[in-house]
Amino acid sequence: MHNGSKQREPFFHIAKRTNLQPWKAFAIRAAAVVAALLVSSVVSSIITDGEGIGEFFANLFDGVFGTERRILNLFQNTAILLCLALAVTFAFKMKFWNIGAEGQTLAGGLACVACIQYMGGKVPEGILILIMAVCSVAASIIWAVIPAIFKAKWNTNETLFTLMMNYIAMQLVACCIFVWVPSGSGVLGVLNHGHFPQIGGYNYILNIIIVALLTVLSYIYFRYSKHGYELSVVGESENTAKYIGINVKKVIIRTMIISGAFCGIAGLLLVAGTDHSLNTNTVAGRGFTGILVAWLGKFNPFFMCGTAMLYVFIDQGARQVATAFGMGGSFSSLITGIFFFFVIGCEFFVNYKVKFSSSRKFRIRQNGTQFPQGGVPAAQETESAEKVKEVNA
After folding, report:
1. pLDDT of residue 364
2. Is 135's pLDDT higher than 90?
3. pTM of this structure
4. How far apart are CA 181 and CA 148, in angstroms?
5. Mean predicted lDDT score pLDDT of the chain
6. 346 vs 137, more confident
7. Minimal CA–CA distance to 311: which of 28, 81, 98?
């Protein structure tokens, strides 16, 4: 009679982490960044057939810190991306999945260009910029509030709604450019009016200052204001919010007004402070990248500063690597993709831990009791065997 069988423990199992110390979480993320850079350098060396790992890192850092202009580009691109990340954070904290930051920013930028087209040279530059700011924020708010009203009143799917609004905004920009450019080229040249003034002889400084102020104000709003508290409660549970007397519909619309206003400011910064022009690709996907930046920053405005700069660092450096190695734009996208594969993947190890089992075998007796092989005292084993016999009898 076969009284038992042998069975191995699972090689490993996954458990939820609890109370992970902040320094350990930081160490995991730092290790992911280092691993991503090393893997990217190896892949680069393989693809370029001979370019060394050292050349990869030299060009990566040269593309970001090589000249004063490149350093300034790092901060101004970080500012634009951070502004859009802040915009989606307001909506995402109340679990309103606003995928429309791209279109909302384009709507704001289009309003800026319209102001320049019809008032440029007719009013003083300072007044023109103020009018542009008001119109840009207003246009973006309208673009953001439309899906918010539908969500609040008829519970429509905000993800699809805001996504479709992106394409409408893009086609609206294309139509307006067709009207404003008589040649039919579809390319709006550099605008002569509505430029932000230089500060200290440098461009983009005003962009950076504005976004820095918005970051501080956002943190105060989320952390200390009543509206920020209501936003968080709605995000946790709409039923709870209603039970304690919060007007959920009002919170949804109010929050999307703020989100749209931030997108409007981003549109103003792009037209007046960076590009001095507009096309359907002006935002260049940063409305979607902002979602990634906000998520990696745990929707904390100050943490998001770091994640936004990290993204711009890799993107800008990878472009220089691609140029130095004579590769196309897809090469820089490959490096960026590898990097964020590691950075996003490391969040698994921040939230979960992998426990490996010992190599000891277990014997399972007929009564279902498990004993480590060779680990049970003889007296206890005899007693257990007698109990099994009694059960069989």
Report:
1. 44
2. yes
3. 0.86
4. 34
5. 87
6. 137
7. 81
Residues whose CB falls within 8 Å of the CB of residue 93, separated by 6 or more in sequence, listed in order: 222, 231, 232, 235, 299
- The rounded distance, in Å, linking the Cα atoms of 220 and 304 is 15
Helices (H) and strands (E) in the chain, counts: 14, 5
pLDDT of residue 388: 44
Which pLDDT score is estimated for 271? 96
> 18-21 long-range CB contacts below 8 Å, 24 or more apart?
20/350
Interatomic CA distance for residues 33 and 346, integer angstroms: 9
Q: Residues for the chain: how many in total? A: 393
Contact 271, 194 (CB under 8 A): yes
3-state SS, one letter per residue, for 153-220: HHCCCHHHHHHHHHHHHHHHHHHHHHHHCCCCCCCCCCCCCCCCCCECCECCHHHHHHHHHHHHHHHH
Q: Has residue 87 got a pLDDT over 80?
A: yes
Q: What 3-state DSSP class applies to 268?
A: helix
Angle of CA points 149, 101, 289, to nearest 5°? 145
Reading the block at residue 331, the tokens are: 């090469």
DSSP 393: -
The first and second tokens of residue 376, run together, are 């049970």
pLDDT band at 50 (very low <50, low <70, confident <90, very high): low
**Which tokens in the block code for residue 201?**
């002889």
User: For residue 66, is it left (φ>0), alpha (ψ between -120 and 50) or beta?
Assistant: alpha
